[in-house]
C-alpha cells in the first residue's frame, strides 16, 4: 500500500501565513519543518510505503500512483487543500482530509473527500489504520484528547530535512488564556496537557542526528504553568551540549508575564532557549481589553521586553492593528511602540474572527462579518480582514497594515532596533558559535544566498554591514545577531514579493 501525505502551501504566499518559508532564495526553503504530516506518518501501518510532501519546499506529484492521499489543512491552506483534494479525487483515488480547520469547520469539507479525520488523529489512529488496510475507511473519524506521553517519534526520515532550518517538537497542547482573536482553545482545549520531559528529549535527539541545530518547541504558551516550565528547561540543560554534542538553539512561544520570573529566564538561557514569539499586540490598554489580553495589561511592555532580551531571549513580536477602538492614527502609534523595543522582527496582523470562536458568532450577529462562510480571509495573516472595522474601511486597514510592515523594515528603522537589541541582549551560557550547518547533503545556509541579493540595495547593505560591527563589539551574541539578520533579510525579500502581488489577489 502506498500512502501520500501532503501539507499544502498557504493560500496567500506573500503574507504572514507564508512566513515559515524563506524568501529571497532560489531553492525553496522553510524556517520550520512541517510537523503534522510526519507525526501522522508515525501512526500508519508498518510495511506501508509512505511519501511526504511539504508543498512549501516541494512540488506536489499529482500523478503519484498511491492509494489514499492524506491532506493536513489549517485555516491558511483551505483553498489550496480543497484544490488538491479535487485533483486527486478526479484521478479516482481515495482522499482523506484532517488538520485544524477540518476539525473546526467540518461542514465545508464534507463531500470534498472520501474520509474526514476530526480532532487529534492519535486517538483514532488504530481504528483508522485497521480500516485502511481492510479497504474500508469510514466517512468520518471523530477523535478524543490524545495521551501526550504515548506519541511515537515522528517519521522525520521521510522529510526533506535539507530544506529546513529548524525542526519542530510538540511539548504540549491547549492554552488557558482566552484571547479574543485566537482559536486554540476551540481546537485543542483550554486545559494545557504536557508531554513528560523524557518523551520530549527523544525528539531533539532524533533531530540532532538528522543534522538540525535549531529546534522549535511547539507550545501555545511555554511559560504558563511554572512548575512544568521549570522542569522542561532543566531536562534540556542536561541534554544540550552533553555527550559531545554541539549546542542546539531552541525557540518557542511565551507570554510577556515570563519576564517576572528571573529564575525561569536563567534556566531558559542555560537550556539554550534563545528565541521566543511574544504576542505584544499593542500598547493601547483599551485594545488589549478588547483582545482579552489581560496578561499584557498593567505592565510596562517596553520594560518587560527589555528584561526578556537582557536574559538572552531574542523576541519575535506579534502586533495587531485595526482594533475596534483604533483610528487611522493607530499605525503610526504602533510604529512608535515598536521602535522603542529591542526587537527587530515582527508579525503584523489585522484582527480577524477565527471560525468557530465566540467572536465569529458575535461579528455575524452584529453584521460585521465578511466572507464568514467561504473562510477565504479568516487566517490572521490574510491581507484583508474578515471583520468590518469600526473606525476605518477594510481597504484602509489593509493599506495601513502594509505601511506599518514596510516602515518597520525600512533600514533606518531596523538599524535603531538592531542596535537596541545588540546593546541589550544577554549572552548565551553556551558557545553558540560552535553550532554548525551540518546536515548531510545540505546546501549552504540560506543567508549566503540572501546576502548578495540584499547587498544590491544601499539601505539593506547598511544593515548587513552594521551587524558584523555589532558582533565585533560583543562576539558572544554573534550567532543570535546573525540569525536575526537572516530573518530580517527574508522579511525584506518577502516584502518585495508582496509589493508585486495585487491586493485583489488576497481578497
From TrEMBL:
One of its GO terms (molecular function) is catalytic activity. GO terms for cellular component: cytosol. InterPro entries: BchE-like, Cobalamin-bd, Elp3/MiaA/NifB-like_rSAM, rSAM, rSAM_horseshoe, rSAM_sf. Residues 1-139 form the B12-binding domain. The keyword Metal-binding applies. Pfam families: Radical_SAM (PF04055). Keywords: Iron, Iron-sulfur, Metal-binding, S-adenosyl-L-methionine. Its cofactor is [4Fe-4S] cluster. Residues 161-395 form the Radical SAM core domain. SMART domains: Elp3. PANTHER family: ANAEROBIC MAGNESIUM-PROTOPORPHYRIN IX MONOMETHYL ESTER CYCLASE-RELATED, HYPOTHETICAL METHYLTRANSFERASE. This is Uncharacterized protein. It comes from Rhodovulum sulfidophilum (Rhodobacter sulfidophilus).
